[in-house]
Amino acid sequence: IYACCGLDRTEPAIHDYGLPCVHGFYTANGLAENKQLKNACETFRYKKVFLVSPLDMIDDEVRITTDYQRAIYFEIVEAYKNFGYQVVHVPTFYRNRTKSINARFEFIKDQINKALMEKQPVQKTKKETVFA
Between β-strands 49-52 and 87-90, what pairing exists: parallel, antiparallel or unpaired? Predict the structure, then answer.
């Protein structure tokens, strides 16, 4: 929250984690509602939210895909919805992890660039051609 307060609100900023994510973790773990967290989720708002669907985990000695991990993702999605966000879901795209990660990056980058272009004033040339 402190890091967000110091940002220039006219400039884009990217966060890899949002307050509603924490709210989702609380719910997934059956913790009592935290009024301060709920208030922070309602006060500190994001202009655009991308939720990246989980990639299939590669089960090994360290990582094991569980119903708990799926439940956390579900609760995070629900938290954003409950706080009134229109979420942009970022699909998996490919079974190949590297190819999928690259495609996800391009998808998000294109969405951000599109949103930035919509905010820029339209300029006209002598021929009345419009450039965005």
Answer: parallel
